[in-house]
Design goal:
Helices cover 3% and strands 45% of the residues. It contains 1 helix and 28 strands. The chain has a 4-stranded antiparallel beta sheet with strand order 1-28-27-26, with no helix packed on it. The chain has a 4-stranded antiparallel beta sheet with strand order 2-3-4-5, with no helix packed on it. Strands 6-7-8-9 form a 4-stranded antiparallel beta sheet, with no helix packed on it. GO terms for molecular function: RNA binding; translation initiation factor activity. It comes from Diacronema lutheri.
Length: 343
């Protein structure tokens, strides 16, 4: 499995995101310039110009026509994917740390940092259907705002059928909110340190978390109970679940921040992406390559490839070899264990 190295950013990657079909890969970094690439070969398609600060987050709608980004310049920006045109700027009182489109593209959300005394706020905006043709009639004011976390919000996602919103924060909690009222439904204490990432399984029945405490957790979203735990020997920045039922794995990535590394730290050099069996929690293997911590991971919706973005400014796209998908079958199917026929 040879990676495709994509070098299009001058500074550290902050988030990468596949579109629904898995043929496009969107990347954002601290260099102010969101970019889009062909996910198959890493060819650069274009760059979206407008932000004046580090871009922390990105989301793309289901039809791959609208792109939403959040930045340290205290704005969320809406873009037309095919043309690269900036459609709308949504100003905020603090850096925007998380964005996400609702199912059906009728709404989107933003979540804020708690810097300079600002409270980490989640805002919901209504999106007009013809926003690509004209921004006239599109309000830049949220229809709902609510507060609850005690620390910076690192990720915010819409729940199934847009009924809930799920967030994670530096306050070490994962919280579930009523999307209509902003009321807190449940608070999940899954970690001892900052929760850096949350991602749904393909059917949204489970949620995987990543934390600076060096673990990833699998949460049942019906009972809100932790059902699996994946222990790593480094702080984690990202975690994802494979969408393939025949290959049930979780991939995690992270590493010790440069400012936190000491010459005696046992966590030095732990910069690879690690695979765990989804059910048995066993470590299956790892993929090396980055020269710094892995800041973000994404598995393609078809499950045949994954990408990682690092502090080194590189995106690495990995396409699984065909043998990867038959390895488990070969290990357990007696047909593969038959002795060779005698000549």
């Amino acid at each position: 499995m040879r990676p495709i190295l994509v070098k299009g950013h001058e500074r550290a990657l902050t988030m990468i995101k596949y579109n629904k079909e898995g043929d496009l890969l969107f990347t954002v970094s601290k260099d102010h310039h969101p970019s889009v690439w062909y996910a198959d070969n890493g060819e650069h398609i274009g760059t979206y110009h407008g932000h004046t600060g580090a871009v922390w987050c990105v989301a793309v709608n289901e039809s791959s026509t609208l792109l939403l980004t959040g930045s340290a310049d205290n704005s969320a920006r809406l873009w037309d994917v095919p043309t690269g045109n900036e459609l709308m700027v949504f100003k905020h009182p603090a850096p925007v740390r998380a964005v996400d489109f609702a199912l059906g593209d009728g709404h989107f959300l933003t979540a804020l940092d708690n810097i300079m005394g600002n409270k980490p706020t989640i805002s919901v905006y209504e999106l007009t259907p013809n926003i690509r043709q004209s921004a006239t009639g599109q309000s830049d004011s949220p229809t709902l705002k609510f507060i609850g976390h005690d620390g910076k919000i690192n990720r915010a996602l819409w729940g199934p059928l847009n009924k809930t919103i799920v967030t994670c924060s530096d306050d070490a909690s994962v919280r579930v909110w009523d999307a209509a009222t902003g009321e807190q439904i449940h608070k999940i204490h899954a970690h001892r340190d900052k929760v850096t990432d949350i991602q749904y399984a393909w059917d949204a029945s489970f949620l995987v978390t990543a934390s600076k405490d060096g673990s990833a957790k699998l949460i049942d979203m019906d009972s809100f109970e932790i059902v699996k735990s994946y222990e790593c020997d480094r702080p984690l920045n990202s975690a994802h679940i494979s969408p393939l039922r025949e290959c049930p794995y979780v991939i995690v990535g992270g590493g010790q921040d440069a400012m936190s590394v000491t010459t005696t730290s046992s966590k030095m050099g732990k910069l690879d992406a690690v695979f765990f069996h989804l059910v048995f929690e066993d470590e299956l293997g790892s993929v090396k390559g980055h020269f710094g911590p892995i800041n973000t991971l994404a598995i393609a919706p078809h499950g045949r490839s994954f990408a990682s973005g690092g502090e080194d400014g590189y995106v690495r796209i990995h396409h699984f070899d065909p043998s990867y998908f038959t390895a488990e079958e070969e290990a357990f199917n007696p047909a593969f264990l038959q002795p060779p026929a005698e000549k």
